[in-house]
Design a protein that fits this description.
Order of helices and strands: EEHEHEEEHEH
Oligomer: single chain
Distance between the termini: 38 Å
Structural class: alpha+beta
Strand order of the largest sheet: 2-1-3-4
Strand content: 15-25%
Helix content: 10-25%
Radius of gyration: 14 Å
């Protein structure tokens, strides 16, 4: 039987760059994401949550994923939630707001994670949008706004 490996989010450093864009992750405002892959020590970093989800939609990549973490903006704020250790939560456990008036760090529509549905609801009151779980995020929302690598 395989041993269960508990994965923990890694700490972002100034040297970490976005997987798709090659830009320094810290230089971007808004929620971030990281994916840990089997057999790879360093996390793959994404300057947005949308890009991290896009990575999971690539058919050749999904089997290798060990863990996927996002920054809950209700735990870490909007500007740089990645700086708060408690903001990193498992992507599958987050609540998300899509189609809001608030865009991500690259100026693109974002998938905005929250630790609770209540916190997401407060955000929706101010910025609009729709509350969804991870499995309810439509692929068209992730891939439908230009090419995946155009974001960062």
């Amino acid at each position: 039987p395989e041993e269960s490996i508990t994965a923990f989010p890694q700490t972002l450093t100034r040297d970490d760059v976005g997987y798709f864009c090659g830009m320094i992750v810290e230089d971007h405002r808004g929620p971030k994401s990281q994916i840990l892959l089997v057999g790879r020590e360093q996390a793959l970093w994404f300057t947005s949550v949308r890009d991290g989800i896009a990575f999971t939609l690539l058919p050749e990549e999904t089997e290798r994923r060990r863990a996927f973490f996002v920054t809950a903006v209700d735990q870490g704020g909007w500007d740089h939630p990645e700086q708060q250790a408690g903001a990193w939560i498992e992507a599958s456990k987050a609540w998300y707001v899509i189609e809001s008036r608030q865009h991500g760090g690259m100026g693109m529509p974002e998938v905005i994670p929250f630790s609770t549905a209540q916190a997401a609801g407060v955000f929706i009151e101010e910025f609009g949008g729709q509350l969804v779980t991870f499995s309810e995020i439509p692929a068209r929302y992730i891939l439908g706004h230009g090419q995946v690598h155009a974001e960062g």
